[in-house]
Amino acid sequence: MLIVEKTIAGTDAVQIPKQRGESLLDAAVRYAEERHWDVVPGTWLEASDGVRACSCGDAECPAPGAHPAQPDWVALATGSATAVRRMWERQPAASVLLPTGRTFDAVSVPETAGFLALARMERMGLTPGPVTLTPDRRTEFFVLPGAATKVPGLLRGLGWSLSSIDLTVRGEGDFVAGPPTRVGCRGAVQWVRRPTSANRWLPDVEELIPPLAYACGRDR
Predict the structure, then answer these.
(1) pTM for the whole structure
(2) Band (50; pLDDT cuts 50, 70, 90)
(3) Fewest 10 Å CB contacts: which of 11, 78, 118, 210?
(4) What is the Cα–Cα distance from 106 to 108, expressed in whole angstroms?
């Protein structure tokens, strides 16, 4: 089940990104300009014999059109809106990749666990940061950097381990695909909780791990 949020009026109006209809270039510029996130263009989809294939040329690509295009992608990531615009003007179809471990880490859990956790967070009075839903049915929660090193200990304190539940953390050297990036024929990455002024200050992973671990445990 996909939660579709209403646009919030006034100072909290959603500005980045629109749920539908925004180009990859516009979305990438907004992330850099308004959220101050580093951005880097990834691969893109190309039509080949009537099939949309990844520009990397690998017929068995596990994430067609949604992974780094160059080995030095980490060094190419930038928070300059001018540089971002220039990069996407060269390749407008490039996916929008957001490096983790810089301004945010991302905690990834199955879709059903993610929505259960969101409901539990609401009851607990917690305000999550932005949350995406990927075409692979994963929800990714944006949290403060450093989550990758904290999560194993936090889970042990709750009686879990990373190997016992389906929860992963994307930190330094990794990335998430930002909406409206498409992943092959599977669909596009979407916002479940969009970036707004209300969630500009990201939560520490310590706040979100209890409901996320609980939801993952229920989802096993």
Answers:
(1) 0.88
(2) confident
(3) 11
(4) 6
